[in-house]
Amino acid sequence: MKKTKYEQLALDLRNEIESGFYSENEKIPSLREIQELKSCSLTTAKEAYRILEEEGFIYVRNKTGYYVQKNINSVIFGPQNEFYESVEADDRIQQIMNTVMDPKLISFGAAIPSESYLPIRELNSSFKKALLHRDIFTYGDLQGNQQLREWLAKRTSLYSYRVTFNQIQITSGCTEAITYSLLAVTEPGDTVIVPSPIYVGLFQILETLKLKVVEIPYRIGEGINTTEFEKLIKRHKPKVFLFAANFNNPNGILFTDGTKQELASLCYQNGIHLIEDDIYGDLYFHGERPKPLVSFFPQTSHGPKTFLCSSFSKTLSPGLRLGWVATKTGIQSISKITRAFKISENHPTQVAIVEFLKRQTYERHLKFLRSEYKKLSEDTIRLLINHSDGNLKITKPDGGFVLWIESALDGDKLLLEAKKMGMAIAPGSLFGLSKHWNHFFRLNVSVGQSPKIREKLIQFANRFQKNGNRKKTF
Predict the structure, then answer these.
(1) Which structural domain range is residue 231 located in?
(2) Would 331 be classed as within a structural domain?
């Protein structure tokens, strides 16, 4: 969609600030001066400056004019609050995903845990036990196995989102849980606000449901800037906030509790529904299990709805296809949608997981995963930085098992080069609607560090030296 004159002017000035043409705290041209410099009307200049002020690039100092924001480097981390009338998750994404998922390549690209870190033996034993159940081959409860829902309700309540088993719907994975949640509270043409970068699969859902999108960037140290968020609410009036507050895929960022509290309050006050992807919440590296953002929402039976979505895909096995959505006030809507698509969930798998959970091995398994993924993340970061001569900027994750990496090279071209080396990476272009992430890529560390894998990583990291890249200090 063609930009208006003031949007284009704001973009031009934003690029000048990002390039360092104007430095932090520097006074920029006045409205009259920019009118002359850019050959535009005063109205265009005012609107452009308003946008830059709302985005946090500039601020007004009483009676002296406009200045570039302090600590501007922390502001220009990510796309700048961009609005999309429609989403097009085009065929190019599917082509890239075909390469990322190619079984002939070492899978550094797909966010799939390696079998080495899955409790395969215990799961096999649980499935054998499940086969002894008389009713295993009949239709199960449409809402899901009651014992499983009771276990999930108890566990969810431990981190402050208190629900009963009747407020949980079992789904075929987390993506389905998110889709049902969106269907429960949106209609085509509604606006959804999402952080960027974010899981690529969400864009395909948003396109299918014909929803408009506002991207808000993650900010270093807080997750999302609540002042920016409030301004976007006023401008775009979103129906839903769709997000991952705990260890977002791909950048592993964790929202602070203060940010969670403020975002929850803003959403409640403005009637915005919350849909939270908490699939990585159990894979924290430090301290205690972080609370989901929805747990900070006022505990009332009226007002906007909250949906907490997750699955066992990142902890037990992606092939189980077993997820869930927990919701305090939206379960009737979710149940109605579920009835339209199926008669029951996968009954044998649910019974097998109940058998697995009876053994109380889940927490022990999670403790093992957290320790392994933390070590793998730290070791991989060290290896990549050492063998790239420091020419990679890596966002250190707070949890999960993926690394978000910036380089001087185009991520899509890097995907093709990696393929020639026998490995797959996920280019940054998958994780946002803007082109801001073209020089980023995501790497899955759960493939482990066998001698062969280390050799591939070193070969890949050396690629950033051989091109003669200027050494950077991050």
Answers:
(1) 135-358
(2) yes
